[in-house]
């Protein structure tokens, strides 16, 4: 992967995290495609409108979100970014925290990376396959 792609994907991830913490569906929409899907261990695939509806209603809020990137793979107009994410917030008024592995699938739209799919898995241990930001083209 060239350095420009790496920098652009890392910037897209940072923007996505910041948008989630803003709790503003319009800001989040700037980072995702209309057909974005979130896949969670608890609920399976959730369409964008379901997730954005929870955020718009205040049922789901994020206070913090940090991600350590372990792997990026640029396939031209599609790329994947895998990392470990910790976040905190509230769901239906109750405090929540999460520590998960996250793979975001991006597609280049009008020259910018937009997320089409986010897949979450519980983080049960440390990675065996390398250090942060290792990439294998």
UniProtKB/TrEMBL annotation:
InterPro entries: DUF4440, NTF2-like_dom_sf
Domain DUF4440: 9-115
Top-rank taxon, per record: Bacteria
Coiled-coil zones: none
Protein name according to UniProt: DUF4440 domain-containing protein
